[in-house]
From TrEMBL:
Entry's family note: Belongs to the cutinase family.
InterPro entries for the chain: Cutinase/axe
Region (Disordered) location: 45-64, 69-88
Pfam family, one: Cutinase
Name the UniProt record assigns to this protein: Cutinase family protein
Record keywords, A-Z: Disulfide bond, Hydrolase, Membrane, Serine esterase, Transmembrane, Transmembrane helix
Origin superkingdom: Bacteria
Length: 328
């Protein structure tokens, strides 16, 4: 009898050990799953509807040109007024949208500044920093931009568009422009007059089919999302380069990047998805680095033109030469 009891005891020990190991592993898996869900997954908008047959005129309330301005991280919020943005009075994009808007009458140009949370939470901060994750912020900004353009296109099918964005806003504007260039966006490609992206996190630095025109000195690095392609931690999904680039819009899409700005000029060896803690820390610090914050004074040509001045001149030229659709 005692021999059988000893045998039973020995057989039960591996089961107990498996339970001791399995329960902590299960707890870790559940915690990681909840962390990912709470931090938010990156949501991409669905392709827009097929455009209806174009009319010969549009409502007198429609502007000839719609400018879409997308501010960067910490330069907007979800409740900001898209026609009178005040969330951040020193937003870089206000140095572009304000002078362009002041130059033209309302019937010629309407400026819509995309309101979104515009935050970038540090997922490894202890204690948590209380901000929205990059995934949630970027998803909201993209959807807000798409919704605004779809609504304008439904009401004003002959209106044309000028698109500009900075930092996180450049990623959002570039993503929507890429969709438009592929024929899957909220408006047809022939309605977009041009796109300018300042400090685009998905910048490849490449030339050739589908790639944007580079303004100013061309830095050697790539966007942080390209350098960190494949990095996926709770709340931060690095999506790499845009498949197909800008498609039909490539010949009228421009990119501006200052050397040393890790958001758009990240050396591949400095940011690695295999060094998650160091890479995430570098990415969060990059959003507030001095080079990234000084585009209002960043010179892009031999005449001393800054990036914001260049973008204002570019936008003004597009609006001045844009079609004058008939109104009814």
């Amino acid at each position: 009898m005692s021999a059988r009891r000893g045998s039973t005891s020995r057989r039960s020990r591996p089961v107990g050990c498996l339970l001791l190991i399995g329960i902590p592993i299960l707890i870790i898996v559940v915690v990681l799953l909840l962390w990912y869900l709470l931090a938010g997954l990156l949501r991409q908008p669905k392709p827009g509807p097929k455009p209806p047959k174009e009319p010969t005129s549009q409502s007198a309330t429609c502007p000839d040109v719609q400018m879409i301005s997308v501010p960067g991280t910490w330069e907007s919020n979800s409740n900001d007024d898209p026609h009178n943005p005040t969330a951040n009075p020193v937003s870089l994009m206000l140095n572009i949208s304000n002078p362009v808007e002041q130059r033209f009458p309302k019937e010629r140009l309407d400026v819509y500044t995309v309101p979104y949370v515009a935050q970038f939470s540090n997922p490894i901060a202890i204690p948590p920093d209380g901000q929205q994750s990059y995934n949630n912020s970027r998803s909201e900004g993209t959807q807000r931009m798409v919704d605004a353009m779809q609504a304008r296109y439904r009401e004003c099918p002959l209106t044309t568009y000028v698109i500009a964005g900075f930092s996180q806003g450049a990623v959002i504007a570039g993503d929507v422009a890429s969709q438009i260039g592929a024929g899957k966006g909220p408006v047809p490609a022939n309605k977009v007059l041009g796109v300018t992206l300042i400090s685009d996190g998905r910048r490849t630095g490449d030339t050739g089919p589908g790639q944007p025109i580079q303004i100013g000195a061309v830095p050697p690095g790539v966007g942080a999302e390209v350098a960190l392609k494949g990095l996926n931690v709770p709340g931060i999904t690095m999506t790499g380069p845009r498949p197909g680039g800008f498609g039909e819009l490539a010949d009228r899409t421009y990119t501006i990047c200052a050397q040393g700005d890790l958001i758009c000029d990240a050396p591949r060896e400095a940011l690695s998805p295999w060094n998650i803690m160091g890479s995430v820390g570098a990415l969060v610090r990059a959003a507030g680095n001095p080079v990234h914050a000084l585009y209002n004074g960043f010179v892009v040509d031999e005449n001393g033109t800054t990036s914001t001045q260049w973008t204002v001149n570019w936008a003004n030229g597009l609006v001045e030469s844009a079609p004058h659709p008939p109104h009814s």
